[in-house]
Amino acid sequence: MSSISVILYTSKTLKNGEHPIMLRIIKDRTPKYISLGFSSPADLWDKTKNSPKRKHPLYTEIMLLIEKKKNDALQLLLTKERSDDGYSAEEIQKTIIKKKRSGTSYVLQYFDETITRLKDAGRLGYAEVFTNTKNSLNKFREEKDFRFTDINHSFIVRYEDWFLAREVKPNSVFVFMRTLKTLINYAKRDELIDNSFDPFKDFSFAKYRRIKTKKRAITKKEIKKIAALKIETDSTLFHSKNIFLFSYYCRGINFIDIANLKWTDIKNNRLEYTRRKTKELFSMAILNPAKKILDYYAKKYKSSENDYIFPILNNKHETPQSKEYRIDKLITRTNKDLKTIATKAGIVEKLTTYVARHTYATVLKKSGISTALISEMMGHDSEHTTKIYLDSFENAVLDEANKKLL
Asked: Are residues 60 and 151 in the same domain?
């Protein structure tokens, strides 16, 4: 026995204080719900008629939608029963949702859904990339949404030209284009568009991958200069120096992972953590200089094994959002401090937290370690990524070889 009805889903309260209006499908006593995209306060809903009261400001629109959705669902139900094929309420629900979404597969709307999904998963940095891409598309389209089927090769070329006319840096253009392509792949996964849909088929990303940005690395001698600096204990400069050196001594661990380290990540004089960006597990022996840094923070701040190691996050930062804001604030301050540290150490190169990672790779390469091994140690998915880090070193080697001509 099956039934279809419309209800005000009072078990859920939206941010505006209203409740969502749902299509309820019951089959074999199993209920499934589909949001109709409208909501209503409880006092504007007629429980007897299961419809909005006439004084609801969107009464006409909601009634028209209810009538259409109920008819669509009843027609689908009738088709299933006539076929005499077994089906469930969940199957009806999925079919209606798929039909509903494929009819409203607007790109900017789907960007919003994807951004919400990423934020809910705690992937705030990636959500920001999608937000920036969506904003660029919104400007390109003059704030008009569009369907996935509107995206073709001509659209992609015009979007690219729009960036170039505004002198957007090639690396940024690459990120925007790549993110749009990723969104299209997500839409395929969600069955909003056919798997054969590929507007990027004749678009080459190779020209962007060939663009090289300057990768900064300092020398082992300059690392020792930083380590030898006498800085007031427990000052922001002191912490910034320790964070930079700890990154260098621990395979170029990046700032966000340093911020999230807890004492539970130290086991038998080994550092074991999962990299936030790639979800890859790292395990490494702790070098003596890094151990001295840890010993200081253990003595100064540690009260339990679940404490954060460095004074970046604390247990008050519970949500992904609050952690992101705190990390953004601290990385800005740390990079500012590193400029002062570079001046004090007599280093001309601009210091940032990322220089420690590049320096780690470059120093190992100059010591004769293979690119393949460095790639493994840094957790890169390919040697190509590692070679990007080593560009400045490779150029120096080539320059020295070229002198043989003289």
From this structure: no
Cβ neighbours, 10 Å, residue 170:
14
Give the integer Cα–Cα distance in Å for 270 and 288.
11
- Give tens-digit pLDDT for 228-287: 999 999 999 999 999 999 999 998 898 999 999 999 999 999 999 988 877 788 888 999
Give the Cα separation of 123 and 117 in Å (integer): 9
Residue 176 pLDDT exceeds 90: yes
* 385 & 267 share domain: yes
CA-to-CA distance for 115 and 126, rounded, in angstroms? 8
**CA 16 to CA 46: how far, in whole Å?**
19
pLDDT in tens, 74-84: 777 677 666 65
Domains in the chain: how many in total? 3
Q: Are 226 and 341 in contact (CB under 8 A)?
A: yes
* Total residues found in the chain within this entry: 406
Q: What pLDDT, in 10s, does the model give residues 94-115?
A: 656 555 544 447 899 889 888 8
- CATH, residue 242: 1.10.443.10
Q: What is the pLDDT of residue 151?
A: 93
Residue 128 parent element (H or E)? helix 124-140
Q: What is the percent of the chain where pLDDT is above 70? A: 83
**Mean pLDDT score across all residues of the chain:** 83
Residue 120 burial (CB < 10 Å; 0-12/13-18/19+)? exposed
Can you give the pLDDT at residue 103?
A: 42
CB neighbourhood size of 119 (10 A): 18
Range of the domain at 160: 107-209
Assess if residue 215 is contained within a domain: no
82 lies in the same domain as 119: no
CA triplet 231, 235, 237: central angle to 5 degrees?
60
For residues 286-322, b (16+ Cβ closer than 10 Å) or e, as one string?
Answer: beeebbebbeebeeeeeeeeebbbbbbbeeebeebee
Phi-psi category of 191—alpha, beta or left, where left has phi over 0 and alpha has psi -120 to 50?
Answer: left
Same domain, 133 and 180: yes
Looking at the fold, whether 287 and 237 belong to one and the same domain comes out as yes
What does the block give as tokens for 24? Answer: 């309820």
Distance, in Å, from the CA atom of 41 to the CA atom of 13, rounded to the nearest integer, reads 9
User: Residue 177 belongs to a domain with what CATH number?
Assistant: 1.10.150
Within a 10 A sphere around the Cβ of 79, how many other Cβ atoms?
A: 12
